[in-house]
Amino acid sequence: MVATPDHSGPPAPSVTIIGLTGVPEILPDADLAGLVLASAEHSGLRLADGDVVVVTHKAVAKAEGRLLDLRTVEPSPLASQYAAAWNRDPRQVEVVLRESARIVRMDRGLIISRTRHGFVCANAGVDHSNVPGGELVCLLPLDPDASAAALRATLRARADVEVAVVVSDSFGRPWREGIVNVAIGAAGLATLIDYRGQPDNDGRVMSATIMAVADELAAASELVTGKLDRCPFAVIRGYPYRRAEGSAREMIMDPAQDLFR
Amino acid sequence: MVATPDHSGPPAPSVTIIGLTGVPEILPDADLAGLVLASAEHSGLRLADGDVVVVTHKAVAKAEGRLLDLRTVEPSPLASQYAAAWNRDPRQVEVVLRESARIVRMDRGLIISRTRHGFVCANAGVDHSNVPGGELVCLLPLDPDASAAALRATLRARADVEVAVVVSDSFGRPWREGIVNVAIGAAGLATLIDYRGQPDNDGRVMSATIMAVADELAAASELVTGKLDRCPFAVIRGYPYRRAEGSAREMIMDPAQDLFR
Q1: A7 in any annotated domain
Q2: Domain for residue B261, yes or no?
Q3: DSSP class of residue B147?
Q4: Among A38, B101, B116, B221, which residue's beta carbon has the most beta carbons within 10 A?
Q5: Same domain, B42 and B123
Q6: CB of A20 within 8 Å of any CB in chain B?
Q7: Are residues A236 and A187 in contact, defined by beta-carbon separation less than 8 angstroms?
Q8: pLDDT, tens digit (0-9, with 9 covering 90-100), for B89-111
Q9: How far is the C-alpha of B57 from the C-alpha of B238, rounded, in Å?
Q10: Which of residues 96-125 of B touch A (CB under 8 A)?
């Protein structure tokens, strides 16, 4: 805690984000819950009820064996043509096209598409694997909500602890530079909090105000995990999330309702 | 700190977010730096070098007198027509149109536009004021980067402390439900961190990977400030930001470069 014991006011709300250390390279069939618990111990932390465990999509995908060796990929004519035009690896372009349900934009070597889950992101979430050896790329987990729920259940069973789990990925977005972490999987918490109908300070009823808290938790986790994947697990402590089964799919906007497109 | 003293590993990176308490209603010409320092003290916190102070746009706008009394607003025919079609207040629609440099979308009673600063958001950032009395709406600060820089300079002068300042607002976005806090003003930190060219764990050079860290800090702050504006100030401690003059305008994507649109 940062607050000194003799402060004059009521306790200030505080949330702490801890990046877990000592995580080894994650290999296919890795015991993800075991790695979270071991790295928490390595970091001097014991998971507690109410914690949020944020895990990068890459850690989940690797443990689930969602790796593909580019040497086994035969590029389509479209992939080869696009790759040649923009100096890309045609096999990687092929994998991105296969992982896409709908192409939003193909330009300047980039592919922005809607994945089968419904997420709109660059390269259908296909990423370098960071796994040594081979020419492996890392695909998004098949069902990140299920991945989150499984990790949550295993942590409960092994450590007798009731946590929420968020699976994060970093996505670009329109109008703003840079990428930010968002939630692509969730379990144990309401991903959206609807403040509509709650009176604000003046007793007025607020109009549409649904906060995407799972995205904010994912974004906050990046402050400690960083981009280089040396730290794929973060624990967020002190955030009073609303308990629920939870699903990041709830955060996918119905295209027909999407005025921001 | 959460870590116990006998942990086996190196110190785990940790970041703490504290919502400052005891903030009174912010009125025009309020001394924002004074309010931050008083609420920090009320919360038992002393600002320290390296802290990030996140302030909601509404707190800044109110202190800068960016309030408009709807009773003084004469709606244009366009505003009246749109308001009548969607059961909105024509004066509020008029204010939104005046605050917009370009309309992105007008549908279902909502207006998504580009503000004069370049931000794309709903209702040009025009919001209920929460100021008691009258029919006041709250406009975005004229120059949120300058607001952040001024607060940073005053905090340095009065409290001899070197902090970064982020001015936050909550924005909707395409493809995903819910709103998230983003940075609309910044001072004292690099808002974008460019990891391009840094080798990843395997020694590969990563492709485009620019993290919008100011947006992640803004999102993290919402975990303690919430939406109801009772807590307009947050302090983020322990995040090793890159010191720079800083500007949230750097995060505005050049439309010609924006493949995500």
Answers
A1: no
A2: no
A3: H
A4: B221
A5: no
A6: yes
A7: no
A8: 999 999 999 999 999 999 888 89
A9: 23
A10: 105, 107-108, 110, 112, 119-120
